[in-house]
Write a structure and sequence with these properties.
The structure holds two protein chains of two kinds. Chain A is α+β, with helices and mostly antiparallel strands. Chain A has one helix at residues 54-67, and strands at residues 14-21, 36-39, 44-51, 71-77. The chains are: A alpha+beta, B mainly alpha.
Chain lengths: 88, 889
């Protein structure tokens, strides 16, 4: 819950969509800190979710690297849900 | 063996043995053997591509040098530069025992001086007769910027003898393109490491004993894309199956990520207990039977481990005695992911058991890792608090900072000892943001009226020292801010709070108070405090601190113009340093004594001191040494007329200018300006005055005095004698009132010259007489010799007119003595043998070849090379040849 005096210091976590080559089952979600893991029909897997900052993003990329799954793409996704509260 | 003061893990230096069931990589090993081994070999590929296996095999089957390679398996803790370089040096020393003593020394005294560490190591390597291969495995695990920068420095300065072999999952941030272009890089990448069809077939048939059709082999190879780890998993899944073809077909038709699919297959084929064992122990970085028993609760862990190793299930032995293992990284990661997905609630419990075991075993680092993973932050905080003293002593500051930063902030609120540790970690790096608030929090706990019910403390000895430590940190903070009064106030509070027998605490407080007064120009009080600090440190047995304070005390005494007292101080320090060590700081005592000799124009004695200082080695020196010995050397050369040599040294000294915390009373730039004036480069000196922002109306203060005196010399050199007189009168008044005897003498000497320049002989002689009288008591001579030709005339006049005639005559005698100047412009000439070696260093001959050419042993060549480097004041072959050319050798 944001109040007026918090506005300006609040930085919403960013939503990311990371695509990897090969199917990873949904049970991998726990390993990837609760991101949604979805297998796509083209043989790739998409991990979706919000990461609090760049360090968290790099941590995730390293986990993917450790498992050896090839990275295909990464993009930011505009957040659908703006935070509540007064915003000028 | 210790790394930065803490015991080393031998397993990290252990060369992995070649494993059974592994396909020979002859095709790749040939590339490594083909020509002379290049400077850098990079094996860069994702997990499971057989990097480590390839390197282990190559080394085992290679030539002499390869067989003796230095191996280092890196892990996350090596992100602390002190830890990283300690291990690197340890690895190299296993192979070449003489190397790296200097580097270890620097690591122990100044772990942040990474360039000095690497330089020392490289020098040792460059003096070797033979080659050394250094293997760094899992280089991608090292993440810190400091390590990367120092490694970059290493790569940029690789000596011929060193061959760097790096295995990594990511390309290191080095100038690879440049290395490639110069033919100094050999790369082996994923595409090279993938199994070809032939290799896949050989592996599946011969190594794994499978009977597959060529089509099936091709399918497997295609599906896995030659990824070795995947093929291994597939092979494991196929063993003992009745219908391999069915498996292959199903595998080929599945979309799942290869490793995900195959690990499932492998796990499914294990007996339930083994499967559980694998999942539960996957949380461990390293496994040993008793640890596994504790974590799984199964008493047959040793048998299970051995069984897993025999069936080649991705268990890698870490030593020869089969006591410690680890999972192959890829397999372990997938197991961990499995566990997180299947039994998340067990994970915390498993980490807790591991933590307890490691804690009991005394491995705090691993215990901490598990405590954090279990989210048991209270335990983690306890472990960190107890580890702080030994980590601090080992100067593993980066580790301390990392561990403290990983704890949730709210934990610090009721943990004063832990919070003080955080303060210390900040202060060490000069990061003072927020430190004051932290200290406020800490000191609230010291308030005797405050109930301490909810305070959490594990290190009670540290709690006892808390009030003193907090006051000292506040004093340090004030000093960093330039608040000298605050420094003194807090320092006195710390002294008052320290227990009667706490001589170290009292010494530290006195030193800090002395430093504050010194910086404020209050030399009398500063001298008393430093003397008290020295006495306290001596009683406390902290001898290196005695030396450090002796250097400061001597500087203060020199500023007071008391050369005799300074000599006694340094001589006492030198005695302590030599008798008990040599201790850190001993080279600095020599340099200080050398500086005194220069003031007395005892140039040969000064040169002796310089030599003695350099012989001891930079790793024994304090932070100031790097620039101070060069300034001493420069003054010696300038005194002997070698202005060019002096300026070159001063340029280097300027780059290394670091007075530690002492006041910057003699900036190198001003010394450089003086030498320029002596050399006739007035324009250069004028530029210095502009850069330093010096003006005629500047107020003389302790810190500005040296520069103002330099400016006065410039005024004299440019014919502005009247302006010089006005300035010098003000300087003299200030120096006298501040009891800065040395500066007063210089002001008087320059006044004599200035008055003489305006034709005012009476005032000139009066000033000179005063100067000579004051100088005689302490032996100041150089100040007159450096005042230029007019001074020479004045001194003769002084003799004639009986104005301090004996003193004047003594100075004249010193001036008339022929300066012994080594024709090459060196303090120490190169012997003819050394010149021979130098000549051969210019060629492409290696050490052994030079030895052969000269008909001596390689050790002799090594000794000559070392001496040549020292005499030329360099630390590499390249620099030696450059300097030799400069000197016309």
């Amino acid at each position: 819950m944001t109040t007026a005096h918090q506005v300006g210091s609040y930085v919403p976590p960013v939503q990311y969509e990371i695509r990897v080559d090969g199917h990873l089952g949904a049970r991998w979600a726990a390993w990837f800190d609760g991101l949604a893991v979805t297998s796509e029909s083209d043989g790739t897997t998409v991990l979706r979710g919000s990461l609090v900052d760049q360090a968290a993003l790099h941590g995730l990329l390293q986990k993917l690297r450790d498992v050896g799954i090839p990275l295909i793409s990464l993009r930011q996704v505009p957040s659908d849900n703006p935070p509540e509260g007064n915003r000028p | 063996m210790v790394a930065a003061g803490l015991p080393l893990l031998e397993s990290k230096l252990h060369v992995p043995r070649r494993r059974r069931g592994v396909v020979g990589r002859a095709r790749l090993a040939q590339r490594l053997d083909r020509d002379a081994l290049p400077a850098v070999v990079l094996v860069s590929a994702p997990a499971g591509f057989g990097k480590t296996t390839l390197l282990a095999e190559w080394l085992a089957g290679g030539d002499e040098t390869a067989k003796r390679a230095a191996w280092l398996s890196l892990d996350r803790r090596d992100s602390d530069p002190a830890v990283f370089w300690s291990y690197v040096v340890a690895a190299v020393r296993k192979v070449e025992g003489d190397v790296g003593a200097g580097a270890l020394g620097v690591l122990q005294t100044t772990p942040t001086a990474l360039e000095a560490v690497v330089t020392s190591l490289l020098n040792d390597l460059a003096a070797l007769a033979g080659d050394v291969v250094l293997v760094l495995d899992d280089y991608h695990l090292v993440e810190s910027l400091d390590v990367q920068e120092s490694m970059r420095f290493l790569v940029d300065h690789l000596p011929q003898q060193l061959h760097l072999v790096v295995a990594s999952r990511a390309d290191p941030p080095w100038p690879l393109a440049g290395l490639r272009a110069r033919g100094r890089l050999l790369e082996i990448r994923a595409s090279d490491l993938r199994f070809t069809s032939e290799e896949a077939a050989a592996y599946l048939h011969e190594a794994m004993g499978l009977d597959l059709t060529p089509a099936d082999v091709d399918t497997l190879e295609a599906r896995t894309e030659g990824w070795i780890a995947a093929l291994q998993l597939a092979a494991l899944s196929l063993q003992g199956r009745d219908d391999p073809a069915a498996f292959v077909a199903e595998f080929a038709g599945d979309d799942r990520f290869v490793v995900d699919y195959l690990v499932d297959e492998v796990l499914d084929r294990q007996p339930g207990e083994v499967r559980t064992f694998l999942l539960e122990t996957s949380i461990l970085n390293r496994l040993t039977a008793p640890l596994c028993v504790a974590v799984t609760g199964r008493s047959d862990a040793r048998t299970t481990l051995q069984g897993l190793e025999r069936s080649n299930l991705f268990l890698v032995p870490l030593d020869d005695r089969r006591q410690w293992y680890r999972y192959h990284h890829l397999f372990g990661d997938v197991l961990r992911a499995r566990l997180a997905g299947e039994e998340p609630e067990r994970v915390v419990d498993l980490h807790g058991r591991a933590r307890a075991w490691f804690e009991a075993a005394g491995d705090r680092a691993e215990a901490l890792r598990h405590a954090m993973a279990a989210g048991d932050f209270a335990k983690a905080a306890e472990l960190v608090e107890l580890a702080l003293p030994e980590l601090g002593k080992a100067r593993q500051d980066a580790t301390i900072r990392a561990w403290l930063d990983a704890l949730p902030r709210h934990m610090f609120a009721n943990r004063p000892v832990l919070t003080l540790g955080l303060v210390g970690a900040h202060m060490v790096t000069g990061d003072t943001a927020g430190v004051e608030e932290l200290l406020d929090g800490v000191e609230r706990w010291i308030d005797p009226d405050r109930p301490t019910g909810d305070m959490v403390v594990h290190d009670h000895a540290a709690l006892g020292r808390l009030p003193v430590q907090a006051a000292m940190y506040r004093a340090g903070l004030a000093l960093l801010r330039g608040d000298l009064a605050g420094t003194v106030a807090h320092g006195e509070r710390a002294a008052a709070l320290s227990a009667a027998g706490d001589h170290f605490g009292q010494g530290a407080a006195a030193a800090l108070i002395g430093l504050a007064h010194w910086a404020g120009g209050d030399l009398q009080v500063a001298e008393r405090q430093y003397a008290a600090a020295i006495a306290s440190f001596e009683r406390a047995g902290f001898l290196p601190d005695v030396l450090a304070c002796s250097l400061g005390l001597a500087d203060i005494q020199v500023a007071q113009g008391r050369l005799g007292a300074a000599r006694r101080t340094l001589a006492a320090g030198l005695d302590i340093g030599t008798t008990n060590g040599p201790l850190r700081g001993t080279p600095d005592m020599h340099v200080g004594l050398g500086e005194l000799h220069v003031e007395r124009n005892e140039l040969d004695a000064a040169a002796e001191r310089l030599r003695a200082s350099l012989d001891l080695g930079e790793h024994l020196a304090l932070r100031q040494h790097g620039y101070r010995w060069r300034v001493l050397d420069a003054r010696l050369r300038a005194a002997r007329g070698d202005h060019a040599g002096a300026l070159a040294l001063l340029a280097e000294a300027e780059r290394r200018y670091d007075t530690d915390y002492s006041p910057k009373a003699r900036p190198v730039a001003a010394t450089t300006a003086r030498v320029r004036l002596a050399a006739g480069d007035v324009a250069g000196a004028e530029q210095w005055a502009v850069d330093a922002g010096i003006g005629l109306d500047d107020e003389p203060s302790y810190l500005r005095e040296y520069e103002l005196l330099t400016f006065a010399r410039l005024l004299l050199a440019t014919g502005r004698a009247t302006d010089a007189i006005a300035l010098l009168d003000r300087i003299l008044a200030a120096a006298d009132s501040g009891h800065r005897g040395g500066d007063a003498i210089e002001a008087l000497a320059l006044l004599a010259v200035a008055h003489d320049a305006t034709g005012d002989t009476p005032h000139a002689l009066a000033a000179l007489e005063e100067a000579l009288t004051r100088a005689a008591a302490e032996g100041f001579v150089r100040v007159f010799l450096d005042a230029g030709a007019p001074m020479h005339v004045l001194l003769k006049a002084a003799v004639r007119r009986s104005r301090a005639p004996d003193q004047a005559a003594a100075v004249l005698a010193a001036d008339g003595a022929p300066a012994r100047m080594a024709p090459q412009g060196l303090v120490d000439e190169l012997s003819s043998r050394e010149l021979d070696v130098l000549r051969l260093l210019r060629s492409d001959l290696s050490g052994p070849e030079i030895a052969a050419e000269l008909g001596v042993s390689i050790n002799t060549v090594r000794t000559h090379t070392k001496n040549i480097f020292m005499k030329l004041g360099v630390n590499s072959r390249r620099a030696a040849l450059r300097r030799a050319t400069e000197l016309g050798l």
